[in-house]
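Next comes one such specimen:
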Amino acid sequence: MKQQTIGFIGGGNMAHALIGGLVADGFSAQKIWVTDLDQNKLAELKEQFHVNTSADNQSTVAQCDIVVLAVKPQVLAGVAKDIAAAVQARKSLVVSIAAGVRAADLQRWLGEETAIVRCMPNTPALVKTGATALYATPAPARASGNPPKASCARWA
């Protein structure tokens, strides 16, 4: 099976932990993209994990099969609305790790047909020992036939 591309919108602590887990598990760093407003975070992630970095959310989303929304809840609406057209064009699976943001709000911002998974990693995930609860919206599975849970199971 072809390895999917994953884009992280936000490069903070939880994104860092998830990226670290993916790379440690053998996921190709060249298939991971990260965007962030903080150029220092991007430089650190690029140096540590050899991932691709960008300051442009839309171009990152345009090339990623899975988009992880790893931004603070208070900025998520703006970020989601900004990338909605790119998500819809690519038909990306969107994974939100933002606490307290309802799936219904994510669908309203990103499009009703967007496949969305809410994912709530706990803090031990920062040291690769956490547990994660998943909730997938009833939106149709992507054309690839991969249900959202199957796409997330490896790294969530």
